[in-house]
Amino acid sequence: VSRFKLIESTLREGEQFANAFFDTEKKIAIAKALDDFGVDYIELTSPAASEQSRLDCEAICKLGLKAKILTHIRCHMDDARIAVQTGVDGVDVVIGTSQFLREYSHGKDMNYIAKSAIEVIEFVKSHGIEIRFSSEDSFRSDLVDLLNIYRTVDKIGVNRVGIADTVGCANPRQVYDLVRTLRSVVSCEIECHFHNDTGCAIANAYTALEAGATFIDVSVLGIGERNGITSLGGLMARMIAADRDYVLSKYKLHKLRDLENLVADLVEINIPFNNPITGFCAFTHKAGIHAKAILANPSTYEILDPSDFGLTRYIHFANRLTGWNAIKSRVDQLNLNLTDAQCKEVTAKIKALGDIRPLNIDDVDSIIRQFHADQSSEIA
Ligand code: HCA
Ligand code: CU
């Protein structure tokens, strides 16, 4: 799973998010931030989509970023001719192969799909740039049809073939089976694209890597059609838990939060509370039992180390689930001196008030300070 690469699609799939409208300046800001983070590829909206999309694609190609620039087109010569003129490093071609898309979208049969795929691929290759061929709605496509088309394009020579779970229906076992089968059929690299309608987008991406895929499509915060795709941050969380050294060596994880904030601001959303890594409580420990162990050794209750992302953990001590170890650490922070027995006593007072109403930090600090003052005056 470790040697994976990212195809970052905030500027393509992400533009299909309900709230997204990126003008040229915003696209450039996002592209630079993604490049700075270290993504391998940046995928852009088709230059055939609109005149401004074409101009923006050209502008981003001229930035001289380290990341390779791709654009995403329909499997059609009209689109391909425009794409190869933009200065991109590669083209991602997609065509629907499921019964649904063949009937209700483009209306073409598998022979026509194969013919146009060959034409488009040979044309793009003749311009000396990378080419990926992907089927849309792969998991609801006929397996024999799918393998035939992938075998055909692999023979002509493509850099990657792609599998797309366009409707988010796939589960990890189906992903494993399809990628494994495809791995035995083609010699090129395999890229995967997962929508998150049933909450499997990160798990499916991980499983695809286990089965032999090497490229994963992501977007910042997962933005995309409907509820989006595998999120960049979520995949980073999953992958750092699997191979920390590789992930740390490749991506500037300290920039994740700023990158997410940039995109969240541009599309006017908040970072979800339960977002991997950057959700506001992702490194907050609350129950007394957890706080005690975290203070002794953070790995007891943390699979991710917040400092890998330039973040810090937080021990939530102002609540009735707190314990005396958490309170003792607060006492230390306040620079006060209490024995363990006294800490236990003051913790009981805090918990008693916490049973009556929600507590804030000031409540706890006042109780501690009052208790401390009482102890000192008793001694005096
Ligand atoms: C879409 C297309 C796509 C393409 C994925 C790919 C999908 O329906 O908007 O090129 O691999 O989800 O099928 O995003
Ligand atoms: Cu998609």
Describe the structure.
The chain has helices at 24-37, 51-61, 77-83, 99-104, 110-126, 143-156, 172-183, 201-211, 232-242, 244-250, 256-266, 288-296, 324-333, 340-356, 361-379; strands at residues 5-8, 41-44, 68-74, 90-96, 130-136, 160-165, 189-194, 215-218, 284-285, 314-315. With 380 residues, it is α/β, with parallel strands linked by helices. The mean pLDDT is 97. It is built from 15 helices and ten strands. Helix 12 links the parallel strand 9 (284-285) and strand 10 (314-315). Helices cover 46% and strands 13% of the residues. The strands form two sheets. The chain has an eight-stranded parallel beta barrel with strand order 1-2-3-4-5-6-7-8, surrounded by seven helices. Strands 9-10 form a two-stranded parallel sheet. Residues 13, 16, 72, 92, 94, 134, 136, 162, 164, 166, 193, 195, 225 line the site of 3-hydroxy-3-carboxy-adipic acid. It is an enzyme of class 2 (transferase).
Summary tags:
two-stranded parallel sheet; alpha/beta; lysine biosynthesis; binds copper (II) ion; 15 helices; 46% helix; binds 3-hydroxy-3-carboxy-adipic acid; eight-stranded parallel beta barrel; PYR_CT; 380 residues
What is the overall number of helices?
15
Shape: elongated
Widest beta sheet: strand line-up: 1-2-3-4-5-6-7-8
Give the fraction of residues assigned to helices: 40-55%
Helix and strand element order: EHEHEHEHHEHEHEHEHHHEHEHHH
Strand content: 5-15%
Summarize model confidence as the mean pLDDT.
97
Radius of gyration in whole Å, from Cα? 26 Å
How far is the N terminus from the C terminus? 65 Å
* Poorly predicted regions: none
Class per helix and strand makeup: alpha/beta
Beta strands, count: 10
Pfam family, one: HMGL-like
Catalytic activity: acetyl-CoA + 2-oxoglutarate + H2O = (2R)-homocitrate + CoA + H(+)
Cofactor: Mg(2+); Mn(2+)
Organism: Myxozyma melibiosi
